[in-house]
Amino acid sequence: MSHPDETARRERDHATPDASLASDKARRSEVLRTFLTLGLTSFGGPIAHLGYFHDELVRRRGWLSDKAYAELVALCQFLPGPASSQVGFALGMVRGGGVMGGIMAWIGFTLPSALALLVLALVAGSLEGPLASGVIHGLKLVAVAVVAQAIWGMARKLCPDLRRTCLALLAMLGLALAQVAWAQVGVIAMGAVLGSLLCRDDKAASVRQHAQAAGLSLPVSPRLARYCLVAFFVLLLGLPLVASGSLVDIFYRAGALVFGGGHVVLPLLEASTVETGQIAADTFLTGYGAAQAVPGPLFTFAAWLGAGMAQVGGGSALLGAVIALLSIFLPGILLLIGVAPLWGRLRARAGARAALAGANAAVVGVLGMALYDPLWTTSVLSRTDLVIALAAFIALTRFSLAPWKLVLGMVILGAVRGVI
């Protein structure tokens, strides 16, 4: 029995050019509608997003096989950037016949939360008084609980043995000693180097067999892949030279160096924005807390920051949000397109997988330091705050409370605390 995608491709190959073009447009419209629905309803963070994608697009719609989806998730977790958004972009390419389908998927999945955070950023400055202060403090405590949950889950998965636990602790120590903006990048690179030496295993053959069996195939030409890889590195190395400290430079670098999920962007952006005086710490943490309340990718936090940073500099909030949003997502998409044709061979290399294991362990350490500073030091200011943050953490981890429900409850609690 033919897979639905194979049948559709055969029909399209035998269709007239006009019919084929119409079919491509119809598929891309379908991709946009489908991901817009997901962008409006996908609460719960990147792991939950991957579950939504599998249920809707693999199980129900049959856009690709379970094995191909598993391999796609592995590829996107291997690369820097927002894994769930990269998976969504790739699914859009599969269904929409190429990069334009991926762009439709990205727009649909990203637009709802980006617009919500932009609107919140525009009205946040007009909110004053004890009520607003209480709400903002409640959002900051949400951020403490959510990052603590992320560290707990990532540590159990990414630091399962003594070697990787030591790498995470070494990363925390390195950040505590080196108070510079590039320290996070340095400790992740250190983790990759040490991981390549200490975290090797003997599973290369089975991984190679799995990669071949999965049959993951993205509609990416070798030439386009090469162009995207060149563009990724040219921008990463060139922007600090020609546009250092600009919105494009800050957010592109953050998107290019984030391993381990959206929460890891917190320390990278905090070092480049708060510590350089481009945005206030309270504004930064309030936005991060608000980002937990909206569906879609956590990277849309960039829209809040871009709008706020543009307003501080006297520029357009809308333009700042758009620049920040495009800049933080672009590197992950360039890497996905560039590496897709090489993935099978790359993942089969024991050295590459060991380096990734070490980098991921270092990421846990980076998040651990971010939990302490700036989150804990600026948010947990009393014993009551400690009890509330601990209760929020237990609600997330023990009772699996949806983050948006926690945000709603903490906003109400913060408002009550602010006026009494």
TrEMBL record:
Transmembrane feature ranges: 31-52, 103-123, 135-155, 167-194, 224-243, 250-269, 317-342, 354-372, 387-416
Q: What is the membrane topology here? A: Multi-pass membrane protein
Instruction: List UniProt keywords, sorted A-Z.
Output: Cell membrane, Membrane, Transmembrane, Transmembrane helix
**Any one cellular component term from GO for this entry?**
plasma membrane
Give the span(s) annotated as Disordered: 1-25
The answer to keyword Transmembrane helix applying to this record is yes
Give the compositionally biased regions (Basic and acidic residues).
Answer: 1-16
> Any idea where this protein resides?
Cell membrane
Give the matching PANTHER family.
CHROMATE ION TRANSPORTER (EUROFUNG) (PTHR33567:SF3)
Which superkingdom heads the taxonomic lineage of this protein's source? Answer: Bacteria
What is the name listed in the Swiss-Prot or TrEMBL entry for this protein?
Answer: Chromate efflux transporter
Q: Which InterPro entries match?
A: Chr_Tranpt_l_chain, Chromate_transpt
Residues forming coiled coils: none
Give the main localization category: membrane
Pfam families (UniProt xref): Chromate_transp (PF02417)
One of the entry's Gene Ontology molecular-function terms is: chromate transmembrane transporter activity
Q: Which family does it belong to?
A: Belongs to the chromate ion transporter (CHR) (TC 2.A.51) family.
